[in-house]
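Input record (one chain):
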Amino acid sequence: MNRRNILWSAVSTLGATLGASSAKAAPEAPPSNKLKVVYHLSDAEKVNFVLGNIQNHIDGVGGPANVTIALVIHGPALKPFHTAQANPDISKRVGEFSKDGVELAACGNTMKAQNVTLTDLLPGFVSAEKGGVVRLAELQSQGYLYLRP
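The corresponding structure, as predicted from the sequence alone:
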């Protein structure tokens, strides 16, 4: 081997060694922000199933402080959340979710079609004024993961 090759090998080895040691010394990236998830509910027969999924999600990550959850409801699925029609289990779950910081969004178009206002719905709901599907798209554009159980 000639001197140029020996010198090049030595410089390459030194560079690789320094690069590896600096990579090990680099600080670890801070943990990513907590997961953001939006649940989409439009089927009335899936209300209890979806509410159970949300509770399992909260429990599975160690509590509401570890996840940001939104529930967007439109179509026939909104009726079980009318105060006059809600069963005690749904009322209790909605109250707990509201305390846990779950965004409960009711489609403004569905509210008009069902002739209800926020005061007719269980406490804790907000209106998705532009519509449920628009709210879903907005949340997804903000990094929310979309789930439709």
